[in-house]
Structures are given as structure tokens and as C-alpha cells.
Design a protein that fits this description.
Blueprint lengths: L23 H5 L23 H15 L5 E3 L2 E2 L1 H14 L1 H4 L4 E6 L3 E6 L9 E6 L19 E2 L2 E3 L7 H16 L8 E6 L9 H11 L7 E9 L10 E8 L1 E10 L3 E2 L8 H14 L11 H8 L7 H6 L1 H12 L3 H7 L2 E9 L5 E2 L2 E10 L5 H12 L5 E8 L12 H13 L5 E6 L15 E9 L13 E3 H17 L9 H6 L1
Helix pairs in contact: 2-5, 5-14, 13-14
Bound molecules: 2-acetamido-2-deoxy-beta-D-glucopyranose (2 copies) and zinc ion.
One 2-acetamido-2-deoxy-beta-D-glucopyranose binds next to helix 3.
Length: 511
């Protein structure tokens, strides 16, 4: 989750308590979300139990992977020695996968991996699971246990990548290795894609894996990747943990602003300098945030589907967004973390100007990073920016820019969403599942030509204090959490073997 670290901070604190809005009609309208499909009892119940020895080995395999510093330092600098070691490592620790007759392994762009698992029934449309093996840099400073030591302390394995996202990369392969050991051949074919440069855009790894599959004419039933997670206490007002599955991710624009003026001497300054003009422009952007779009994107569905999980009176408010949207949207924008889900955000990231105290600088430059709300486009944001700045002396140059990703379906008939949802409920004791918006970006965006059904979910349990560990200090995963992560992928592979979803809940009741 390079940037997707921030996904987890998706939705947030609602200091709504105390609003005594007791109107009977509101209670009557309290939303009842459509239930998940009625799975026949026993369907896909061939649960694979792992022995204590197997589980002990799982965590040792993870530790070994964490100790390989597969760091992406910058756009064009990665630890290629470590990336190469990672390839050798997975060959060594997953002998079943690398010797299996129905699994093909390919190295893409030198360090990324594509596994093709041929299911026994070629009629079933394949799906794909992604993870990435590169991590952001970390120095020993500030860590309780060094970031590449993988020390196990108090039931936690410490290390860069435990949460983002090597845990999933290794966990996925671990699940597959166990199935092979049990002589289980999946019915539905699937791909596993492990990118090596997600933290620096995925232009080499994910992009080339996707291009390779596209050149072979592949289509995917659905795609899973890192993203949102199980949030325990992260959204205030919820009485229990919930799982959020990212059905879209925000777009982005990196915009360079520059102002050129005549150079001069500080003793006879003009009325306005390049710095003053640019500072005023940047200030206008900060003073005039992009419109609050709460309700026009998929974030509304998140709240509606979770409505009944909130305590009173928030449940009434969330069930009646037809009335309370304006109120909720104003509350959400108060905190940076929840503000990010209601609007396109404006972040002034860089400012360069001036060289010497007695020189009027001829130029000043700034870089502003926008993260685009799913209901807006790059062009719409640029129109607003131009209008807000309202000064032709400020030159605008658009760097990297892309629109928000299309919203993947999450209704009762969406095969991928329901398989992921069912797997979450199977493994994490029936917790509620809701769609959400990733405010960061993932490798999955490179696969749009292969499927529109993309689900961004990391099977990890996050408490509020864990959010800052991702890309931060003391990133760690509990041994128990890691075992559940492996179980998640194991179960996902088994659940995806059904030919079709059972009939949706609502239709069953209409019969
Ligand atoms: C790169 O990885 C190698 C092999 O694991 C390691 O020995 C080396 O210290 C790493 N280099 C940097 C700069 O982190
Ligand atoms: C998807 O296909 C279009 C048309 O062939 C191509 O231009 C585009 O680059 C592809 N997108 C990705 C993300 O590969
Ligand atoms: Zn990541």
C-alpha cells in the first residue's frame, strides 16, 4: 500500500454523540442493508486445518522474507540485490509451488512474479490475486526492534513489510503451498501477481504483468489487491470491528506552479515579487478547498451499509442520509483523515524560491498534489484550480495525473465482491463487510483492461495505533493475525471454486 497505506485511514471519527434527533419516521426508515447471498450449508466446507508445526513454519518463512531488504528508495533506485535474493528465497521455501505440474512461474521485469495456476475446470473464468514485495525505506532509528530483523516480541513479528505488503505476498504463496501439500487442485484457474515496484508506481512490475496477460487475451472474473482492512476502533461510533473492501481508489494530479518575473535588486523592489505572487496563488488554493462531495461517490454506501452497526443516535443519522448528508459531510471534513474521503484534497508539497537576501528572485516554483474524489475528474479539478488561482502570471504544468478508478460492483450478484465478503466472514468470525474508498493507490489500477471487478482488501486487523506503523515506525503483525491472513487466502482460493453464486438473499425471500 505504498500510497495505499493511507487507505486504511479511509473513514473516520464521528463525534456525533449528543444529537438527540428522535423522530419516529427516521427510525422507521432505518436502513436495512441487503444481506449476503444464502450459501448452502456445507458448500465449500472443505476447510484446511493447519497443524501447529505447519503454523510455526509459516511465521519463520515470513521472518525470512522480512529480513531481505527489498527497499524501493526512489523512483529509480531499488535494492536490486535484495530483489534478486527474494526470488531465490521463494524458490527455496515454496518447493511445492515451484515443482507443481499445473503451476507456471514467470519472472516479469527482472524481479516481479507471475504464477499461473491451471484449475481442473477450464470453463470457469480465472481470477487474480495481487500483492507487492517491495517496501518503503526504514532505518533502525526510532524502532523498538530493527526493521529488517523480524524479531518476534510479545506475540508480534516486527519488521518493514509485515503489514505493507510482504505479509500478503508470502501469505498468499504459503496458502497455495499448503493446498498443494494437501493434494488439492483448484477447480477455477487463477493468477498470482507479485509486483516489485508498487511503492514507486508499479510501472515496471504490475504494468508489465498486466500487459503480458492482456497480450495472451486473458480476462479476469475479478482481482484482489491490498487496500482497506479490518478496522477495529478506527471508525468511532462503531460498536465492533468491521471489514472494508476498497471498491475504488482516488485519482491524483501532481501540479507544478511557477512564476517568472524580472530579476532585480532588493534595494528597489517591485510592488510584487515572484515569491509574493506564487505565495498568494498557493494560499488561495489552501483557503478554497475543493467542494465537499460527500454523497456523490461510493463513500455514501459505506455509511449506509454500516448504519445499523453504529450506536444510537448515529445509527439513525446514518440510516437517513437523505436528510442528514449535509450534517454528516460537515462533520467528516473536520478531521484530515475523514476529510480525505469527502473531497479532492489539496496538498502543497514543495516550494522553491530565492537565492540571496539582496536579490529579487526571477522565479518561484511550487508543487501541489491533489487526490481526486471518485466523483471528479482530472479536467474538472484543473478547471477549478485555474479559476481559484485566477492569475495568468502563474504557469500551471500538469505532471503525473490520472482519474479516480471506476467503482467496482458490490451488489448481491457481484461474484468477486461476494466471494471476498464470504471469505472475510468465514475467517474473521462473521464481521460486517462494507465497500469503501481507498485514498491511496495500488498496483491494481494497472489491470483495468483485464477486469472492472477490483477489490482492495488486506486481510489484516488494524487498530487506530497501527495506522501510523504502515510506512512508519514499528510496523508489525501479530503471529495470530498472520495465521488468519494465510487462512484468508486459503479460504479465498477454496471459495472461488464455486461455479456461481447462490441466489441473492432478497430473491430467495420473494419466492
Ligand atoms: C541491499 O540488499 C542487500 C542484500 O540483502 C543487503 O546486504 C544490503 O545491505 C542492502 N543495501 C542497502 C543499501 O540497503
Ligand atoms: C488498456 O488498453 C488501451 C487500449 O488498448 C491502452 O491504450 C492502455 O494503455 C491500456 N491500459 C493499461 C493500464 O494498460
Ligand atoms: Zn502497499
Amino acid at each position: 500500500m505504498g500510497r495505499c497505506s493511507r487507505c486504511a485511514r479511509g473513514l473516520l471519527p464521528l463525534p456525533l454523540a449528543g444529537l438527540g434527533l428522535l423522530v419516529a419516521v427516521l427510525l422507521l426508515r432505518t436502513y436495512s442493508s441487503p444481506g449476503p447471498p444464502d450459501w448452502a450449508p456445507g458448500e465449500g466446507e472443505q476447510r484446511e486445518e493447519a497443524s501447529a508445526e505447519e503454523r510455526a513454519r509459516w511465521k519463520e518463512v515470513l521472518k525470512g522474507a522480512i529480513r531481505i531488504p527489498t527497499v524501493s528508495f526512489s523512483e529509480d533506485e531499488q535494492n536490486t540485490t535484495a530483489l534478486g535474493e527474494f526470488t531465490e528465497y521463494i524458490r527455496k521455501v515454496f518447493p511445492g509451488i515451484f515443482s507443481c505440474s499445473f503451476i507456471q512461474h514467470e519472472i516479469i521485469a527482472d524481479y516481479s512474479h507471475l504464477f499461473t495456476v491451471q484449475g481442473s475446470n477450464p470453463q470457469l473464468e480465472p481470477y487474480m490475486m495481487l500483492a507487492h514485495l517491495d517496501v518503503v525505506p526504514a532505518s533502525d532509528e526510532g524502532w523498538d526492534h530493527p526493521p529488517f530483523s523480524a524479531q518476534e516480541v510479545g506475540g508480534y513479528i516486527y519488521g518493514r513489510g509485515t503489514l505493507d505488503n510482504k505479509g500478503s505476498a508470502i501469505g498468499l504463496l504459503q496458502a497455495l503451498e499448503l493446498l498443494l501439500k494437501r493434494k488439492h487442485r483448484p477447480r477455477r484457474s487463477f493468477y498470482v501477481g507479485l509486483g516489485h515496484d508498487e511503492e514507486i508506481s508499479g510501472q515496471k512490475g504490475a504494468r508489465r504483468i498486466a500487459a503480458k496477460l492482456e497480450s495472451r487475451g486473458a480476462r479476469l472474473s475479478f482481482l484482489t489487491d491490498e487496500g482497506l482492512a479490518i478496522l477495529d476502533g478506527v471508525i468511532q461510533g462503531l460498536s465492533r470491528p468491521i471489514a472494508m473492501v476498497g471498491t475504488t481508489e482516488k485519482g491524483a494530479i501532481t501540479l507544478a506552479l511557477s512564476v517568472e518575473t524580472q530579476p532585480g535588486h532588493s534595494s528597489m523592489p517591485p510592488r510584487e515579487t515572484s515569491i509574493g505572487i506564487l505565495a498568494a496563488a498557493v494560499s488561495r488554493l489552501e483557503q478554497n478547498p475543493m467542494p465537499n462531495l460527500f454523497g456523490s461517490g461510493p463513500e455514501k454506501a459505506s455509511f449506509e451499509q454500516l448504519a445499523s452497526e453504529f450506536s444510537f443516535p448515529i445509527n439513525v443519522i446514518m440510516s437517513n442520509l437523505w436528510l442528514f448528508s449535509p450534517l454528516v459531510s460537515r462533520i467528516l471534513e473536520r478531521k484530515a483523515s475523514s476529510n480525505a474521503i469527502v473531497r479532492t484534497t489539496t496538498a502543497v508539497a514543495m516550494f522553491h524560491a530565492g537565492v540571496k537576501s539582496n536579490i529579487i528572485p526571477p522565479s518561484a516554483g511550487a508543487t501541489v498534489n491533489f487526490r481526486i474524489h471518485p466523483a471528479q475528474t482530472v479536467d474538472e479539478v484543473m478547471d477549478i484550480v485555474t479559476h481559484t488561482i485566477g492569475d495568468k502570471r502563474v504557469q500551471l504544468t500538469v505532471g503525473n495525473a490520472f482519474n479516480p478508478l471506476p467503482v467496482s460492483p458490490y451488489d448481491e450478484k457481484s461474484f468477486g465482491y461476494q466471494i471476498v465478503g464470504r471469505t472475510i466472514r468465514d475467517v474473521f468470525s462473521d464481521i460486517p463487510v462494507a465497500p469503501g474508498v481507498c485514498v491511496g493507490n495500488t498496483d491494481s489500477r494497472h489491470y483495468l483492461n483485464l477486469t472492472r471487478n477490483i477489490y482492495r482488501f488486506s486481510p489484516i486487523w488494524l487498530k487506530p495505533e497501527d495506522l501510523s506503523r504502515i510506512h512508519g515506525l514499528n510496523e508489525r503483525i501479530s503471529v495470530q493475525s498472520y495465521e488468519l491472513l494465510v487462512q484468508f487466502y486459503l479460504r479465498l482460493i477454496q471459495n472461488a471454486d464455486v461455479e456461481a453464486l447462490p441466489m441473492p438473499h432478497s430473491e430467495v425471500h420473494e419466492l
